[in-house]
Design brief:
Strand content: 15-25%
Oligomer: single chain
Bound molecules: iron/sulfur cluster
CATH topology: Alpha-Beta Plaits
Helix content: 10-25%
Largest sheet: 3 strands, mixed
Structural class: alpha+beta
Number of domains: 1
Number of strands: 9
CATH architecture: 2-Layer Sandwich
Radius of gyration: 18 Å
Strand order of the largest sheet: 8-1-9
Number of helices: 7
CATH class: Alpha Beta
Length: 244
């Protein structure tokens, strides 16, 4: 496919995303606490930068609850690939032990939705891309499964589908030979809802607009702070952590 064709395809895909979002009707009352997510009748815009703040000390099951909620929402995790290291993982728990103090903690690691996303930089077809609102996605229709993005991601947050997938969730299309990762539950965000892991976290994860100083996430970050993993890489991640 020529670059022009790819660009035209990407434009069509992105426009389609906006139209689909505009067509959704939000149930009455849904936008109260969930007002942190995008109103359904608004197009994707760079005025918003979606982010998540994860308080690892208060996560149910030490982060495993995040993994379980994500699996349930998107239907991954039942693959039968024989090599554990190559199994699907949209989000995984990672145990960190400080060398000096031996203090250990566990944190869920998913796509960090970087402002300057290395995956999008190296993708030869444009399948890996960042939406205007900061959500990093893979367009499965033009992903060729080269896995450059998997090598470029410093967080090991992406995986390749090695086998045919059946009984898929309608909102999370997947395909053999394509790369996938956390979508920040974009299908929910575009309906004015919060990501599945956020809903399941009992308040330990705050989701919202990092550009809006009055959003809950911005207020908590301002008051209590929040760290990026590998902040030294300068990727300005959309996912931040407390307690690490
Ligand atoms: S935001 Fe959605 S896709 Fe990302 S880890 Fe949470 S549940 Fe999974």
């Amino acid at each position: 496919m020529s670059k022009n064709n790819i660009d035209a395809y990407r434009r069509k895909f992105l426009v389609g995303t906006g139209v689909a979002a505009a067509a959704v009707t939000v149930a009455p009352g849904l936008l109260l606490r969930q007002a942190q997510a995008k109103p359904a009748d608004e197009a994707v815009t760079d005025k918003v930068r979606w982010g998540m703040l994860i308080d690892i000390d208060n996560l149910p099951n030490g982060g495993q609850g995040v993994v379980d909620a994500c699996k349930k929402e998107h239907g991954w995790g039942n693959e039968t690939h024989s090599n554990d290291k190559q199994k699907t993982h949209w989000v995984r728990t990672v145990k960190v032990t400080e060398k000096l103090t031996k203090h250990s903690f566990q944190l869920p690691v998913m796509c960090q939705h970087c402002e300057t996303a290395p995956c999008a930089d190296v993708c030869p077809t444009g399948a890996s891309f960042k939406r205007a609102d900061g959500i990093v996605l893979v367009d499965k229709h033009i992903c060729i499964g080269c896995r450059y993005c998997m090598m470029a991601c410093p967080y090991k947050a992406r995986s390749l589908v090695h086998e045919a997938i059946y009984d898929q969730k309608p909102d999370s299309p997947r395909g053999k030979g394509t790369v996938e990762s956390c979508t920040m539950c974009v299908h929910r965000v575009d309906e004015g809802k919060q990501p599945a892991c956020v809903e399941s976290s009992g308040g330990a994860i705050v989701f919202g607009d990092l550009n809006d100083e009055n959003s809950e996430i911005s207020k908590v970050l301002k008051e209590k702070g929040g760290k990026q993993i590998r902040a030294d890489l300068g990727l300005n991640t959309g996912v931040r952590y407390q307690g690490i």
